[in-house]
Amino acid sequence: INFVKEKFKENKKEWVLLVCIGASSGVGRLAFGKIGDLIPGLRKIYMQVASFMALGLMSMMIPQCAVFEALVVVCVFLGLCDGCFLTMMAPIAFELVGPMQASQAIGYLLGLMSLPMTAGPPIAGLLHGYFGNYTVAFSLAGVPPMIGGVVLFFVPLIHRRIQRNQESSEEKLTTVHMFFPVPADSIPTT
């Protein structure tokens, strides 16, 4: 809001941006929830990767907006990305860690998210005080989601590799027992 008041002094409708973010986030949650239901397994994670990359890019685009209407468009895209991210969080957690540990995984994720969300505004204020504008603050704010998107891109590959290794080790165990049966006297009785 301070950025809008500073850059678009003649515009007194900065509240429109918050409405755009909120409304498009709601639409995004509905739309991406339905789309996510159609995508099987961990492929949903690629929706979140695209969302993170777009979120970072849109954050970097905020100071580049020369007219208020361009900022409205950027805020609509930010809301859509937010809707996608929030909607896909739980299904992806269920796919990665299973239903028994999904709530703990979501808790860790939200806990980790709280750190930059708490530290971000004061850091942006310090950067504004030092540079005299918000360009650096918004540009740097776009970097973590983009890095997160790149890291998230590799999660399904690593997850598949871990599952393959677990399956092959289980296969070896059953094969060993088939070829070398355990003597009956070594099996404990209850």
UniProtKB/TrEMBL annotation:
Key word Membrane present: yes
Gene Ontology annotations for the cellular component aspect, listed alphabetically: membrane
TM ranges: 15-33, 45-64, 70-94, 106-131, 137-158
Domain named Major facilitator superfamily (MFS) profile: residues: 1-190
Subcellular location: Membrane
Pfam family, one: MFS_1
Keyword set, alphabetical order: Membrane, Transmembrane, Transmembrane helix
Superkingdom of the organism of origin: Eukaryota
Molecular function, one GO term: thyroid hormone transmembrane transporter activity
Matches recorded under Gene3D superfamilies: MFS general substrate transporter like domains (1.20.1250.20)
Membrane topology of this protein: Multi-pass membrane protein
The UniProt record lists the keyword Lyase: no
The protein's name in its UniProt record: Major facilitator superfamily (MFS) profile domain-containing protein
Organism this protein belongs to: Xiphophorus couchianus (Monterrey platyfish)
